[in-house]
Amino acid sequence: MRRILQASALLAAVTLVAVTGAGAAVSPSYQVTGTGTGGPQSNGSQFNGSGVGSAGDAARWQASVVYETLANCTTVGSACAITGGTFTLRSHGSELNDSFSGGSLQLLSADPGCGRQQFTVTGNLTGDASLVLTGTLTTDRSVFKGQCVVRAATLDGSLAPPPDPGGGGVL
What we know:
The protein is mostly beta strands. It has one helix at about 1-25, and strands at about 30-35, 45-55, 60-65, 80-90, 95-110, 115-125, 130-145, 145-160.
């Protein structure tokens, strides 16, 4: 009887580990979208958003991005470096915590005056996983007290492992 109870307890533990492990699985890549919160502050921005993984799982993410002043990125084609920040992604009970280790914001287009701007974003992430956040950042700006200020910002892109240096591409 004792062996049956021990075997049942072991089977229950293995089943719990298997179910917990399956529920904690995170996709290797995500399509992400998000919005800026609070506007740029001291060469940095906060973002919150959602994503859909390559395995179909839903995710929530948040980022705090630090970059060179965007005043240096006023000409189409110019770029400002991403100098730091954090990135967190949560999916099915798992959490990924990374830091920005480099990257850039490159101005793609700018409406005249204080209009809309679009930037190509490439952010290198390290920490729990090595990933690259790529996409398009769109800012809507207006004049406030004689200066252009960002009223809203959106990010549409992807989060994936970096390309294989051997030329094999992203898995």
